[in-house]
């Protein structure tokens, strides 16, 4: 059964058969934290600005399955992208993939170079085409062990600083290279190594310090030899970017979206995806753990277009069979009425906060309207 949820003027799109691209269409933001691959993926050139680096990130990620790569640096660094259409939340199945460069070690099948990135999604509720609506994290296997609202402030390296090489690892050229301070009161440094001799500070960033806030996942590195010569970064079971090899990644389900309190959120479709480095750890000469993104793919790009159109960014709905699934994001319950376009009342509903399901009487194909006090009507095009 197909369904659509969109603003009435867009009904004309029902007659269009233009194919949607399954791949990234636009990169909206590219804000890496400092790291050993920063200024390399993509490459910084003298004179580059935020805008020109954003264009390079666009070139690296858009238009194909895995066209290139960007590094998000240490904890909190992120990229925001979208497709040329909303990604539909197909119940019970993965909705999109994000490709990275994780590999499995020949020595231990439990992992290798897993650098999990936390995934966030957002719907363009206000309809302005920009990622300025509420973000919802996609829960992963480690959500119950993760630290939410974790912050790290990084400070630009002092050019007069005297390097302090690591006494036991000749590749670590400076153990006090780039200072950081975390919200849990800990402090430290990002180390520099001789594999990457460029600046680890994003060179287009003019500020002397930058702060990132997000969800920190548990450390996943183990020093297998006990002397820092062989680190294994374990893969988590599911739910993170750059966590599993691309051939093993089954995809990410919009149905796993949660709000700031960890409560499930029902999103009919999303327009924007954010990936942020979730680890705050270092592994000697391997450097800081940094999520890399190499592309993304909508797993059902030709599914019916679904969109929430509540002007209050608080009400979304979808019809599955004769069940109306609604998410009320406001702080209080609301009364609502589902009516046909012709004005015939189908059902009077009381919507509690959060997600709720309502069994409707048998419905014929047509346009239905979910009207609630204080919100723009949500129009549902129901195709039986």
Q: What's this entry about, in short?
A:
By secondary structure, the chain is mostly beta strands.
Structure description:
This protein is mainly beta and 384 residues long. Helices cover 3% and strands 35% of the residues. It contains one helix and 27 strands. Strand 23 and strand 24 (345-351) form a beta hairpin.
Q: Output the strand order for the largest sheet.
A: 2-4-18-8-9-16
Detail the poorly predicted runs: 1-17, 306-313
Question: What does the main sheet amount to?
Answer: 6 strands, antiparallel
Through-space gap between termini: 6 Å
Annotation field: number of helices: 1
Q: From the structure provided, what is the oligomeric state, counting identical versus distinct chains? A: single chain
**H and E string:** EEHEEEEEEEEEEEEEEEEEEEEEEEEE
Please tell me how large the radius of gyration is.
23 Å
Provide the residue-averaged pLDDT: 86
β-strand number? 27
Structural class by SSE content: mainly beta
Strand percentage lies at: 35-45%
Helix content: under 10%
Shape: elongated
Features:
single chain, 384 residues, mainly beta, 5-stranded antiparallel beta sheet
Present the secondary structure layout.
Layout: E1 2-5, E2 26-31, H1 50-61, E3 70-71, E4 78-82, E5 87-88, E6 96-99, E7 111-112, E8 117-122, E9 136-138, E10 147-155, E11 172-182, E12 187-193, E13 209-216, E14 221-223, E15 231-234, E16 257-258, E17 269-270, E18 272-277, E19 292-293, E20 295-298, E21 315-320, E22 323-328, E23 334-340, E24 345-351, E25 354-359, E26 366-371, E27 378-383
Antiparallel strand pairs: 1-27, 2-4, 3-19, 4-18, 5-17, 6-20, 7-15, 8-9, 8-18, 9-16, 10-11, 10-13, 11-12, 14-15, 21-22, 22-25, 23-24, 23-26, 26-27
């Amino acid at each position: 059964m197909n369904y659509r949820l969109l603003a009435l003027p867009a009904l004309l799109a029902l007659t269009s058969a233009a194919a949607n691209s399954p791949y990234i269409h636009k990169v909206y933001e590219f804000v890496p934290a400092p790291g050993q691959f920063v200024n390399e993926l993509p490459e910084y050139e003298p004179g580059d600005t935020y805008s020109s680096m954003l264009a390079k990130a666009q070139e690296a990620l858009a238009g194909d399955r895995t066209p290139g790569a960007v590094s998000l640096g240490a904890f909190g660094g992120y990229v925001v992208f979208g497709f040329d259409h909303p990604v539909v939340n197909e119940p019970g199945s993965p909705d999109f993939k994000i490709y990275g460069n994780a590999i499995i070690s020949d020595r231990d099948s439990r992992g290798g170079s897993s650098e999990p990135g936390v995934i966030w999604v957002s719907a363009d509720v206000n309809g302005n085409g920009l990622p300025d609506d509420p973000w919802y994290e996609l829960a992963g296997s480690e959500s119950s062990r993760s630290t939410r609202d974790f912050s790290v402030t990084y400070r630009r390296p002092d050019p007069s600083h005297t390097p302090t090489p690591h006494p036991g690892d000749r590749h670590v050229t400076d153990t006090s290279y780039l200072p950081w301070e975390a919200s849990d009161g800990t402090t430290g440094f990002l180390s520099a190594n001789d594999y990457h001799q460029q600046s680890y500070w994003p060179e287009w960033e003019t500020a002397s310090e930058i702060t990132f806030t997000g969800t920190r996942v548990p450390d996943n590195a183990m020093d297998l030899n006990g002397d820092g010569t062989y680190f294994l970064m374990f893969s988590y079971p599911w739910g993170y970017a750059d966590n599993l090899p691309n051939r093993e990644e089954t995809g990410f389900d919009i149905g796993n979206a949660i709000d700031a309190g960890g409560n499930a959120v029902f999103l009919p479709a999303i327009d924007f995806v954010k990936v942020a480095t979730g680890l705050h750890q270092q592994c000697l000469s391997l450097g800081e753990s940094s999520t890399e993104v190499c592309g993304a793919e909508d797993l059902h790009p030709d599914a019916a277009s679904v969109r929430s159109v509540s002007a209050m960014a608080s009400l979304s709905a979808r019809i599955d069979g004769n069940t109306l699934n609604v998410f009320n994001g406001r702080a209080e319950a609301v009364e609502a009425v589902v009516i046909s376009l012709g004005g015939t009342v189908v059902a009077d509903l009381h919507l509690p906060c959060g997600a709720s399901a309502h069994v409707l009487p048998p419905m014929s194909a047509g346009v239905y309207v979910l009207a609630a006090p204080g919100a723009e009507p949500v129009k549902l095009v129901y195709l039986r």
